[in-house]
Each structure stands twice: as structure tokens, then as C-alpha cells.
Amino acid sequence: MDGSPLRWDMLTSPEIQTLVQQGMDLAILPVGATEQHGPHLATGCDTLSPEQVALLVSQHTGVPVLPAIPYGISLGHTDRWPGTISLQPQTLIQLVLEVGRWTVASGFTKLIMLNGNGPNAPALECARIQLRHELPRARFRVLSLFDLSPRIKAHYFSDASDIHANCGETELLMALLPAAVRPDKVVDEDDIAANKVFSYDMPATTRSGVVGRARQASVAGGRRLADMLVEDFSAIVRAALIEPWPELAEPR
Questions:
Q1: Nearby residues of 226 by Cβ (< 8 Å), 6 or more positions away
Q2: What are the domain boundaries of the chain?
């Protein structure tokens, strides 16, 4: 299936109802952040990236994409650099709970949260566990853009273990949304937090807000990464559409 992406916010209520009546039971929720990404990437990087990938996957699978959540857990950036807007973890949990409940109320029984910001993951998992408890006839999954598959993870983390505005993040937007990149302002910074016992906030580990080798980014590399993301996430989505309940656990 290839066509226009199904954006939830561009569909009418009857159109969404028709999707459900035709058997569509899965929706994708991109979850990102608004935070500094050095001098060369837009603050919306972690929202724009999963949103763009989700929309491309929607074209291939016919699964609707909910409006992206543009705020996440960005506390580690502090207020050292302008532009960061962070939620508290409990705020993100509550927001995702409410979105999940209303999505299920519209008739969808499967929800995949596609995360674009690493620190969001614990809060999203908390929301997933709560939603599963409240809505046992529905199913929920949290996936992060940068580790959808081993080859994607290897690509993203090839230049740093604690990536931020690095080669992978930069070149994906170079390929998918070049207006979000300032090529003349790209900088590199080594990952000095690697192999440490503790984690540290960004001002302790980077001067520019960048961690990784962003100067290695290319449009061609971004296209390769985008192709991998769309192919591997589409495979997950297709499997989710037909996955039966486990034999020993009929839905309650």
C-alpha cells in the first residue's frame, strides 16, 4: 500500500470512524522534544524526525499518525542554551495517558509510541504499563527511533555513545527536512561521557550542545538512514497489525 500519509489531524471524525469500521485498529503517536541541538539543528529535531518517519510509514501501511507531542523530558539540557522547553516526567506520563485513553475511545485498540528523545523512554514506559492495566483489551508499545533495529542503532551511534545533534540526527534531517539544518554552523564534539559510571547533564559534557561528529553527515547518508527507518518500522507496524493474542492469554 502506497499513498498519502493518514494524518489524524487532517481527517474528519467520520473518516476516522470509517477507518475503524474497515478494520484499522492501530495508530502511531510520535513523541519528541523541543530542546537545543547545537548551533546547526532546529530545536524540534527530536519531534520532526519521528513525525516524518511515521508519516512515511503511514504511506506504506495505511496506519494513521496522531499529532506529534512536541515536548518531552529535556531537563538535562538545563537553561544553558536558549530554546529548550522541558516537561517534568510525571507531566509527560499524564499527557500520554490521556492521549492513549482517548485514542482507544475512538475505536483503536493498538497504539505505538514512536519516541525521538532518549530521556522520554522511562516516562513513556510508565504510561504504557498504566494504559495496559487500565485498558486490558488494548495493546501498547514504546519504540525509539534510534534503536528500531540493530542496523539503525549501529548507524545512529557510530560516532558517539551519548549522541546529540550528531551525524545521524543531522543527516536524517538533511534528507527529510533540510530547512531544519544550518549546514554552515555544524560543529563536532567528542563524547567525553562514554564509559562513565554516572550520567551528567549536557553543560558538563559539551561546550556547543553537540555530542558526536556532525560534520560527517551527508544527504546521501541521511537517505540511507531514512530508507532503513521506513523499511524496518514498516515491518514492525505490519506485524503489529496482524499479531494475535498469545495462545495462553485471551484478552480480558
A1: 53, 56, 172, 175, 176
A2: 8-242
Query: Which strands form 26-31's sheet, in the order they lie side by side?
Result: 26-31, 110-115, 139-144
pLDDT digits (tens, 9 = 90+) for 42-54: 999 999 999 999 9
pLDDT digits (tens, 9 = 90+) for 95-111: 999 999 999 999 999 99
pLDDT at 85: 98
In sequence order, the β-bridge partners of residue 144 are 115
**From start to end of 160-218, where are the E strands?**
188-189, 212-213
Backbone angles phi, psi at 107, to 5 degrees: 110, 0
Q: What is the largest CA-CA distance in the chain?
A: 57
Q: What is the CATH number of domain 8-242?
A: 3.40.50.10310
Residues 6+ apart with CB under 8 A from 233: 53, 54, 57, 114, 143, 148
